[in-house]
Amino acid sequence: MPLFSLPRRMIEETFHVLRSCGDNRRECQLYWVSSWNDPLKLLEVVHPRHLSSAYALSIDSGWINEFWNDLADRGMGVRVQVHTHPSEAFHSATDDAYPLLPEAGFLSLVIPDFAMGPVGFDRAYLTEIQSDGSWQQVDIEARIQIDG
């Protein structure tokens, strides 16, 4: 089980983006990326172009193509997708069906209350794609270490 290193500044940036984008009315999504040279050290928060409502979101397909090219050029990869839900944090059937990376080991973190609660992972939900394509909840502290 890999343990990702997450700088505290990225938590603050994550909540700022989710709150600004969602405006306490809409879901929002972003990605945590790292270098292929040190994949467990998370480096950046990336906020995709998307449309959203209180209960759904759709990433702009043109943006995704540009994003993959940018990541390849910079030797980076997506490690975790992060998104909000209006109340309780869980992984919906839609979340299960449409991950950014449908491969074993990919993580999806859901933040409750459109990220309007305290900054941190209380009541958050982390899940991981299994080798059979199913999702399984995993302990946040066992997979993400906050640094700095």
Written description of the protein model:
By secondary structure, this protein is α+β, with helices and mostly antiparallel strands. It has one domain (4-106, 114-147): Cytidine Deaminase, domain 2, CATH 3.40.140.10. It contains four helices and ten strands. Strands 3-2-6-7-8-9 form a six-stranded mixed β-sheet. It has a two-stranded parallel ribbon with strand order 1-10. Helix 3 (93-97) links the parallel strand 6 (76-84) and strand 7 (107-111). The two termini are 22 Å apart.
Anisotropy-based shape = globular
Structural class given helices, strands, pairing? alpha+beta
Strand order, sheet with most strands:
3-2-6-7-8-9
| CATH homologous superfamily grouping | Cytidine Deaminase, domain 2
The number of domains is: 1
Order of helical and strand elements? EHEEEEHEHEEEHE
- Low confidence ranges: none
Percentage of residues in helical conformation? 25-40%
